[in-house]
Amino acid sequence: MTAFYVRMARPLEQAVAAIVCTFQEYSGRCGDKHKLCQAELKELLQKELPTWTPTELRECDYNKFMSVLDANQDCEVDFVEYMRSLACLCTYCHEYFKGCAPDPPCSQ
């Protein structure tokens, strides 16, 4: 067991580990283990962000989403493209909640 897991990880450390582990869990099932194909991306969105992914999304909606994330147009989403999408999501959430009072305050 590494030192990372022996001591109690801080929330940001846990978040980074979750981001990396989630990508690795879904990537490579269909091919390149360092990239998400459209089916893997769709499954990740549906299972890991169920309340953020509308249930009424059609296949063409996933096609559009994939084309937006796939900056280099190789029909797969690599880790950098995945991280850009999460950064945009975090930025959106930050902007959305900027005016809200932190009630209750964030737990630590």
From TrEMBL:
<dbReference type="InterPro" id="IPR011992">
    <property type="entry name" value="EF-hand-dom_pair"/>
</dbReference>
<comment type="subunit">
    <text>Homodimer and homotetramer for the citrullinated form.</text>
</comment>
<keyword id="KW-0862">Zinc</keyword>
<dbReference type="GO" id="GO:0005737">
    <property type="term" value="C:cytoplasm"/>
</dbReference>
<keyword id="KW-0677">Repeat</keyword>
<feature type="domain" description="S100/CaBP-9k-type calcium binding subdomain">
    <location>
        <begin position="12"/>
        <end position="54"/>
    </location>
</feature>
<dbReference type="InterPro" id="IPR001751">
    <property type="entry name" value="S100/CaBP7/8-like_CS"/>
</dbReference>
<keyword id="KW-0479">Metal-binding</keyword>
<keyword id="KW-0106">Calcium</keyword>
<keyword id="KW-0164">Citrullination</keyword>
<dbReference type="InterPro" id="IPR034325">
    <property type="entry name" value="S-100_dom"/>
</dbReference>
<comment type="function">
    <text>Binds both calcium and zinc. May be involved in calcium-dependent cuticle cell differentiation, hair shaft and hair cuticular barrier formation.</text>
</comment>
<dbReference type="GO" id="GO:0046914">
    <property type="term" value="F:transition metal ion binding"/>
</dbReference>
<dbReference type="InterPro" id="IPR013787">
    <property type="entry name" value="S100_Ca-bd_sub"/>
</dbReference>
<dbReference type="Pfam" id="PF01023">
    <property type="entry name" value="S_100"/>
</dbReference>
<keyword id="KW-1015">Disulfide bond</keyword>
<protein>
    <recommendedName>
        <fullName>Protein S100-A3</fullName>
    </recommendedName>
</protein>
<keyword id="KW-0963">Cytoplasm</keyword>
